Amino acid sequence: MIAPQHDNISITETINYLSQGIKLALSKECRLYIIIPVTVNLVLMSILGYFLFTSIKDWVFGLVDMWPDFLIFLAYIFSAIFAILIIFVGCYLFSTIATIIASPFYGLLADKVEMKLNGTQSDDMGFIDIIKDIPRILKREFQKQLFFIPLAFLCLIVTFIPVINIISPVLWFLLTSWMGCLQYCDYAYDNHKISFSLMKKDLKHNSLPTFTFGALVSLALSVPILNILIPPAAVCAGTCYYLEMQKRYNLSQG
After folding, report:
1. Which residue from 107, 143, 179, 224 has the fewest beta carbons nearer than 10 Å?
2. Where is average pLDDT lowest: 14-28, 44-58, 144-158?
3. What does the pLDDT look like over 49-70, one tens digit per residue?
4. CA 126 to mean position of chain CA atoms
5. Smallest Cα–Cα separation from 199: which of 213, 177, 218, 183?
6. Distance CA 220, CA 230 (A)
7. Range of the domain at 242
8. Angle between helices 226-249 and 31-66 (to 10 degrees)
9. Contact 91, 227 (CB under 8 A)
């Protein structure tokens, strides 16, 4: 856990971790580890993105047809707001699905980034090691979704409550921002066998940088094409974030 007497990580440093993460993901030492995750992202985002776009288009035209002519402008405003919300949440959910599928490789990527930044060496893990780790890694992903799904359900309920639903985009943004950091910092924590609950406490101690990191990741995930590269870059950035907290706060090693 974090010792409270140290200074928090600044927002500027947090922003730099994401740019550093992109450079690390594309570096010659890490390129091999992002091929499969990027391929998974590309295939999944292309298929699901097509169906999402088609559904939103049909929904918008259906909504406009239902409104009287003198309120058409309101129909377009509401449909634009909800379409943006659906695209934002949809891209996040699609990326989450792709991340779960590629999670064994993200653990390897986080380990490689940590070795590169610390200047250390270890035996390379093969596919047999990855297969052996899959049950543990999927259990960890399940823990994250158990944390996320109830909160997402509450946000969904608020979305359909008249008047109150005006704050639903803010709630969704806060939730996806928190999960954006938690999701991609977790691989470094998991490699060190640090529990999910301890990781949440560490991130909560730096709540503003954590939300900033997650918000940047979530916004980037909603940008077509860019969202294919962002997940592995976010894993690298999350590992940088973990290492900085480890250096400043002497984190528990599990």
Report:
1. 224
2. 44-58
3. 777 777 766 766 676 677 677 6
4. 26
5. 183
6. 7
7. 11-34+102-119+127-249
8. 120
9. yes
Q: Please, are residues 130 and 105 in contact by the beta-carbon 8 Å criterion?
A: yes
Q: CA-to-CA distance for 106 and 232, rounded, in angstroms? A: 7
Residue found by looking up tokens 């077509």 in the block = 224
In a domain, 254, yes or no: no
Contacts of 6 (CB under 8 A, 6+ apart): 248, 249
C-alpha 161/C-alpha 152 separation (Å) is 15
CA 138 – CA 104 distance, rounded (Å) = 8
Q: How far is CA 151 from CA 142, 157, 203, in A?
A: 15, 10, 18
Of 232, 245, 247, 215, nearest to 23 (Cα)?
A: 232
| pLDDT over threshold 60, residue 187 | yes
If one counts the domains in the chain, the total is 1
Domain assignment present for residue 211? The answer is yes
What average pLDDT does range 100-128 have in this prediction?
Answer: 78
Task: Take residue 162 and report the two structure tokens written for it.
Answer: 């008249």
207 and 9 Cβ atoms separated by less than 8 Å: no
Instruction: Give a yes or no: residue 61 inside a domain.
Output: no
